[in-house]
Every structure is written in structure tokens, then in C-alpha cells.
Design goal:
The chain has 369 residues and is of the alpha/beta class. The chain has helices spanning 60-75, 86-89, 97-115, 119-123, 142-155, 170-179, 199-204, 221-230, 244-252, 269-281, 295-305, 354-360, and strands at 5-20, 25-38, 41-47, 129-131, 134-136, 159-163, 184-188, 212-213, 235-237, 258-261, 286-288, 328-329, 339-341, 351-352, 361-368. The two termini are 13 Å apart. It binds 2-succinylbenzoate (OSB) and magnesium ion.
């Protein structure tokens, strides 16, 4: 596979509802879409950064810089081989996993279109439908939260994740658990807690949560290990796990018993599959995280979640949970059993809507070999 041209589109797409976490409020999805052309075909990828670097150090601005100045020049005109070789080509460029993953996704889509093979199959996926859940941002009060949860359950979601932060945690979990005793319920703190606040999580143990996601800062693996030793609810790491090496070390230290896999966070689908494989050999459940993706990244998440080790529902909602208008079609819909179909067309299995792309693009550039 040889890449002749790369296009980067910086888009801003309105969200249906604001999405609030312990660190940040998001109103619009501002990310990069990457188009590659080679061997007479085209492929799309999504770089899952956000405008503000609250989740990790990457932002849409840094990703543009790393792509334009380093990643794109490295691969243009090069005989690349399979997309799984891409990480080797860019190994000399440190960090910036989301920028790398966005370009790698476009190469996977291109390779799939050239071969006529769906991405899920290329990665080793086996399922045709994947179980999904909804991630609920911080709400103004418990009453509103209960209404939002009820609304999503009525839509057919079977698993709910609540964003929490200090002061908006136990009360929320208790209220939702009381209203829905059998619901698959989990929480995500996005690293908002100090290690001296771990009592909150010990108190959460009684609510039968599926998991507690990333309570402490990403570099503090030891704090998570200390918490895991004190609670029976599985600790799940998100931000802390940026490579298969990091995953192995966290598991060796018993810092988590579940891992949230996001291809963007770990530098691409190739590394994501390695983490999946490691966890499978250790009987560690994994699930596919989300970054409010457009239909491009959502298609990629569904393909990844088709792998056999993804035994917990992913943060992969239907398109209309986030977007009235999306850049990709067809839209993803929730089945009555709380699953979404894995795309079955070549590559990502979705097409770009050129009108929507034009409407949402705020900056674009093209690079040729
Ligand atoms: O921590 O999982 C997270 C969204 C943006 C950044 C980080 C996270 C999230 C979500 C939403 O929880 C998941 C989704 O529905 O896409
Ligand atoms: Mg998370």
C-alpha cells in the first residue's frame, strides 16, 4: 500500500446535548477527519482529540501539528505494507497516540476497501452485534440525572455509566441504584480524585457496580492498586493505559481488573488489539471506550468491539444520542436487545456525506507525495 495524498479536515459538529465530565464541558465535537488515497482507493480516519486537552495532553490543535509536520511526511509515497506496520513507521515520533491512531484508522479503512474486507474481520472480530451502553455526563441535580437515566433506558440501553466527581458521587449512585436495582451500572471519575478521598469508593462497594473507572490521576498506578486491594468492585483503568506495556504492568500490580480500550488513547487499532490479546490470556474483561466519535470513529469502535475478549458493553451509543446530523452514513441504531450492528461493508463500512463534511469543516489541507 502506497499513499499518494492525505487530506486533513478540522471539523466542528454540534452535539445534541452538552457533555459534562469532572474536568470539562463539551458542546461541539471538534476533531480531525483524515482522508488518505492510494492504490486507486480512499480511506477515512478520525482523530479523537477534543478542542481542549482535558482528557490527555493532546488537543485537536496539537494533532494537526503532529500530523502535518511529522506523521504525514513520514508516510507519503512510502511502501507501507499492511496497516499493522504503521506503528513501526512512526515509532521514532514520541507520544501523540490520538494523532497516530487517526491516520492508522484511515489506513485500515483504505486496506479494507482495497481487499473488500470489513474492518472487524481484518482485526479478528467474531460478533455481528455488540452490546453497548450509554455514558451520562454530570447533571445539575439528582432529579435530572434520574430523568436522563430513565430516558435512556426507555430508548433500550441496558448499561449505564455515570460520570462522577467529588461531591457528585455517592448520592447519584445511590439514587440510580435505588430506582434500578438490576441495572448494569458503572462510574467514571476521569481522574478527579485525590488518594486521600478513597473512602468514597469503599462506600460505593455496596451498590454492586460493574466497575469504577479511573478514579485517580493517570500516572498514579500505585493508588489504583491500593484501592483495588480495599474494594471488591473491579477498578477499571482508562487514561492510565496508553500501551500494551502499561497494561501488563498495571495488571501485574493488580491496579485494575478490567481495562477500557480506546484505540485513540493507545496509538491505534494495532496496539488496541495487542491489549485485547494480553487481557484475553489473563482472563481480564475489556470493553470499548468512546470519545463522542462521529460515524467514522464509531464504525471503528464497533469493529474493535467485535473481538471476542470485549465481554462488557462498550461506550458506543447510537448516532442520535450525540448527533442530529453526522458526517457519515448510514447512522448507527440501537437494536431492541441493547446491541448495535457491526458494519459489514469493506473497511469501516460507512461513507462520508460530502455536504455535511463541508458544513462542519473549519479548516482543511491537502498533502501530496
Ligand atoms: O472518559 O470515557 C471517557 C468522552 C470523552 C472523553 C473521555 C470519555 C468520554 C466518555 C463518553 O465517557 C463515551 C462516549 O459515549 O463516547
Ligand atoms: Mg473514561
Amino acid at each position: 500500500m502506497k499513499i499518494d495524498t492525505v487530506e486533513i479536515h478540522h471539523i466542528s459538529m454540534p452535539l445534541v446535548h452538552r457533555f459534562e465530565t469532572s474536568m470539562h464541558v463539551e458542546q461541539d465535537r471538534e476533531c480531525l477527519l483524515i482522508h488518505v488515497e492510494g492504490d486507486g482507493q480512499g480511506g477515512w480516519g478520525e482523530c479523537v482529540t477534543q478542542r481542549v486537552p482535558w482528557y490527555s495532553y493532546e488537543s485537536t490543535g496539537t494533532a494537526w501539528h503532529i500530523l502535518e509536520d511529522f506523521l504525514v511526511p513520514t508516510i507519503l509515497g512510502l511502501e507501507l505494507g499492511a496497516p499493522s506496520k504503521f506503528p513501526n513507521h512512526v515509532a521514532g515520533i514520541k507520544g501523540h497516540p490520538m494523532a497516530k491512531a487517526g491516520l492508522e484508522m484511515a489506513l485500515w479503512d483504505l486496506a479494507g476497501r482495497i481487499e473488500g474486507e470489513p474492518l472487524a474481520e481484518m482485526l479478528g472480530g467474531e460478533r455481528r452485534q455488540v452490546e453497548v451502553g450509554v455514558s451520562i455526563g454530570l447533571q445539575d441535580d439528582v432529579g435530572t440525572l434520574l430523568e436522563v437515566v430513565r430516558h435512556h433506558l426507555n430508548e433500550g440501553y441496558r448499561r449505564v455509566k455515570l460520570k462522577i466527581k467529588p461531591g457528585m458521587d455517592l448520592e447519584c449512585v445511590e439514587a440510580v441504584r435505588e430506582a434500578h436495582p438490576d441495572l448494569l451500572l458503572q462510574v467514571d471519575a476521569n481522574a478527579a480524585y485525590d488518594t486521600n478521598q478513597s473512602k468514597v469508593f469503599q462506600n460505593m462497594d455496596r451498590y454492586g457496580l460493574v466497575l469504577i473507572e479511573q478514579p485517580f490521576p493517570e500516572e498514579d498506578i500505585q493508588a489504583h492498586a491500593e484501592l483495588q486491594a480495599r474494594v471488591s468492585t473491579p477498578v477499571c483503568l482508562d487514561e492510565s493505559i496508553y500501551s500494551v506495556t502499561m497494561a501488563r504492568q498495571a495488571l501485574d500490580l493488580d491496579a485494575c481488573r478490567i481495562i477500557n480500550i480506546k484505540a485513540g488513547r493507545v496509538g491505534g487499532l494495532t496496539e488496541a488489539v495487542k491489549i485485547h490479546d494480553l487481557c484475553s490470556t489473563r482472563n481480564i474483561p475489556v470493553w470499548c471506550g468512546g470519545m463522542l466519535e462521529t460515524g467514522i470513529g464509531r464504525a471503528s469502535n464497533l469493529a474493535l468491539a467485535a473481538l471476542p475478549g470485549f465481554t462488557l458493553p462498550g461506550d458506543i451509543s447510537a448516532t442520535d444520542r450525540y448527533y442530529e446530523v453526522d458526517v457519515a452514513s448510514p447512522r448507527f441504531e440501537l437494536n431492541s436487545d441493547g446491541t448495535i450492528d457491526v458494519p459489514s461493508g469493506p473497511g469501516l463500512g460507512v461513507d462520508i456525506d460530502q455536504n455535511a463534511l463541508k458544513e462542519f469543516t473549519i479548516k482543511k489541507a491537502q498533502f501530496a507525495a
